[in-house]
Write a structure and sequence with these properties.
Shape of chain A: globular
CATH topology of chain B: ABC transporter involved in vitamin B12 uptake, BtuC
Distance between the termini of chain B: 52 Å
Structural class of chain A: alpha/beta
Number of domains of chain B: 1
CATH class of chain B: Mainly Alpha
Radius of gyration of chain B: 19 Å
Oligomer: heterodimer
Order of helices and strands of chain B: HHHHEEHHHHHH
Shape of chain B: globular
Largest sheet of chain A: 6 strands, mixed
Distance between the termini of chain A: 38 Å
Largest interface: A-B, 35 and 22 residues
Number of strands of chain A: 10
CATH superfamily of chain A: P-loop containing nucleotide triphosphate hydrolases
């Protein structure tokens, strides 16, 4: 069954056409990657799905419901969690407080806005459990801005997951990481997204081929191909796009 | 007791009281800036409106306590309306438009004030219980100044509790660092912005009511205190509430002792302080360079 379906999606920025007739299906439980050279429209596609931009044409279907034009916070409540390409944790808050933001918003509606959060035992326990899963227990009280880059990024992935979304969307989670950090992050993501549906944008081919069940290649705003890592690896059009060759 | 000591203490009280008023005004300014990135030029005008509404409610009800509650709430509601129906529409087009809009709102407020209340200086009298002096340990303190200090400290304590202990506070602090991420966690950020803007203008309104009996109410009120509040926020670092509190107290003391000891330099002491701070730390004492 398709958890997310995109039909005939277009988007432009004041006349500059960025997405052309994009169709995409993300099956329940799969790890789906979107790859493509710079300027392919990956992040735009991401931002349209997560409600930051409203597309002029096309439809986005989540769990069978049309969610085109929904606001970001509404999508989050429907079960779409996301991370951002640029670091976007709460820099002054500690690692613990960062994760707790996600846990609190998952519980959101049930919880009083002005109750003392330090006394919510269940929230504290769940937050500590998440910190343990991402190996940040010893950094619990450290402000996010003082964490190493790799740990900082792990924290962000964990935040996106702490709301327990049905669809996790990660925008280049390994951007700017060293080789060891990337390796560590992939393992972390694999572990945390076990059994979940994930849509990931990624630049690093090693990451994509080791993590994704299916891959969609975006090039100049169009879908070039969709398939298993094996199929994509052998696709001539994809090779051409990445090597920058013209098609004729 | 030596007369020098009495003088020092009484000047310190004046300074503290003015510092507290500065804090009430600059706290709203810095909170709105920190969260929404908007430098609200109209902030001082909302402060002045607080003073005018105080005068109006007082002349209608004759009760200072009622105006202390009602006037800031009306100011805060006006702030909410400005955010919801004016600023929000411009948010997508960047900060320059928002800045210009707040300049316009300030002008409209100033114009309206002159139309409704004229340009005369209007007196506000405080209830009997806040008048006069109180004797403590052989010294006499003006009760109203003590009242202002206590009022500001109570508000500071409540703000601290909300910001550091509640989910609402976590959301606001989170949105100060990254509003987009808070949004992605399922929080209706535009609604939070509206709340913060309303709260910030409410604080300005409280400040307006607090100074009304001391400075009287007149259309130049916004310029006088508004400029000081801006200097506080710039010196403290945009978005820092803690900084706004500390710098407000420093400036309050600086202005009252300045008038006493170096009257000719007094008007520029604050600016001198700001210049030195900015030369050493361009983002302000508690500010961050991005």
């Amino acid at each position: 069954m398709n958890l997310l379906e995109i039909r005939g999606l277009y988007h432009d920025f004041s006349g500059l056409q960025v997405l052309f007739d994009v169709n995409l299906e993300v099956k329940e439980g799969e790890r789906h990657a979107i790859i493509g050279p710079n300027g392919a429209g990956k992040t735009t596609l991401f931002n349209v799905i997560t409600g930051s931009y409203r597309p002029p044409r096309g439809q986005i279907i989540f769990k069978g419901n049309d969610i085109t034009g929904c606001k970001p916070h509404q999508l989050a409540r429907l079960g779409i969690g996301r991370s951002f390409q640029i670091t976007s944790s709460f820099s002054k808050l500690t690692a613990f407080q960062n994760i707790r933001m996600g846990i609190l918003s998952k519980k959101g509606i049930r919880f009083n806005l002005v109750r003392n959060v330090d006394k919510m035992k269940e929230v504290t326990a769940e937050t500590d459990e998440m910190l343990r899963r991402i190996n940040l227990e010893t950094e619990r009280e450290i402000p996010a801005e003082l964490l190493s880059y790799g740990k900082h990024r792990s924290l962000e992935v964990a935040m996106a997951l702490s709301t327990e979304p049905e669809l996790v969307m990660l925008d280049e989670p390994t951007a700017g990481m060293s080789k060891e950090e990337t390796h560590y992050a992939i393992e972390l993501i694999r572990r945390l997204t076990e059994g979940r549906t994930m849509l990931i944008i990624e630049h690093d081919m090693d990451v994509v081929f080791s993590l994704a069940d299916r891959i969609t290649v975006l090039h100049l705003g169009r879908v070039l191909a969709t398939g298993s890592p094996q199929e994509i690896r052998e696709n001539q059009q994809v090779k051409d796009a990445y090597l920058g060759e013209t098609e004729d | 007791m030596e007369s020098d000591t009495v003088l020092y203490i009484s000047q310190a009280m004046h300074g503290l009281a003015y510092g507290m008023v500065l804090f009430l005004v600059s706290a709203g300014l810095t909170l709105i800036f920190g969260m929404m990135g908007i430098l609200n030029i109209a902030h001082a005008s909302f402060f002045m409106l607080g003073a005018y509404f105080c005068y109006q409610v007082l002349s209608m009800t004759g009760n200072f306590w009622v105006s202390l509650i009602v006037a800031p709430v009306i100011v805060g509601l006006l702030g909410v309306l400005c955010e919801r129906y004016l600023l929000r529409k411009l948010h997508a087009y960047g900060h320059v438009g928002e800045l210009l809009l707040t300049v316009g709102i300030g002008m409209v407020i100033l114009g309206s004030v002159k139309i409704f209340w004229g340009t005369e200086s209007l007196p506000v009298t405080v209830p009997q219980i806040l008048k006069g002096l109180v004797k403590l340990g052989g010294l006499e303190y003006p009760i109203y100044r003590l009242f202002i200090i206590a009022l500001a400290l109570v508000i500071l304590a409540i703000m601290g509790l909300i910001l550091y202990k509640t989910r609402l506070g976590m959301i606001v602090r989170g949105a100060v660092s990254d509003a987009e991420m808070v949004n992605a966690l399922g929080i209706n950020v535009p609604a939070v912005f509206m709340f913060v803007f309303g709260f910030g203008t409410w604080l300005a309104g409280v400040g307006g009511v607090a100074v009304a009996p001391i400075l009287t109410v007149y259309p130049g009120l916004s310029d006088q205190v508004g400029m000081d509040a801006f200097v506080v926020v710039v010196t403290a670092g945009f978005g820092s509430l803690k900084g706004a509190f500390i710098v407000s107290i420093i400036f309050g003391l600086l202005s009252s002792f300045g008038v006493q000891f170096v009257p000719k330099l007094a008007p520029v002491l604050m600016f001198g302080f700001m210049a030195i701070v900015l030369a050493l730390k361009p983002a302000g004492i508690f500010g961050e360079t991005e």
